[in-house]
Amino acid sequence: xPDSIFVWLRSQRFLLRLTVLTRILLAAGFIPxxxxxxxxxxxxxLPRSNAIGAFFEAMYQTGAFxxxxxxxxxxxxxxxLIPAFAHLGALVFLPVMACIVAxxxxxxxxxxxxxxxxxxxxxxxxxxAWDYGRFRSLFTTRPFPAGPRVPDLKLDAWERAxxxxxxxxxxxxxxxxxxxxxxxxxxxxxxxxxAAGIFTLLRFVVISVRQGRGRDDSRTTGARRGEKPx
Length: 230
Prior knowledge:
Elements: H1 2-10, H2 13-38, H3 51-61, H4 64-80, H5 86-106, H6 111-130, H7 132-135, H8 157-177, H9 183-224
């Protein structure tokens, strides 16, 4: 069952794009945040009288552990952005996100924050499912069943350029929210990210339409030749 689900996931062109987008969103959300911790800076300005402020201040006062958490988040984010090591990034993110969900639930960050962190945890689980083939040997020694091969889908050059531009813009925006870059950079990042996102989406639509027409043409040709459509 997991093998067939894995093959199905890898055969969906849309899910390939969703995977790339999910990796970028998680990396962009955590690398600037991790850098704040890694550089030994406070994460929030909330007073200690506030439960959330008191929690973050206590974590900040641990010193080395605060830096370690930041390093783990930065490492996981960087690994997610490298295709060959993206599965390791998801693996590192899994305990990080599980701890964050437990923290925001226990300290009562609010329903909105809890929902967002749970969705992020589900996103990490999805990324691990996408790379199930790399983890498969941990669960079974059975050879991969005979049947449809795992598709090797790729982004075209324009899509890659769009995603890279979107990632740069997103990093700049989150860097602004963490006071790592200036406000002017953050403003430009919003417009650049929107433009790159719309361009990449439209490019995917064009590719899908072209591929759909190609399949229709091949089926029509086969039918005219008296062949049975696949």
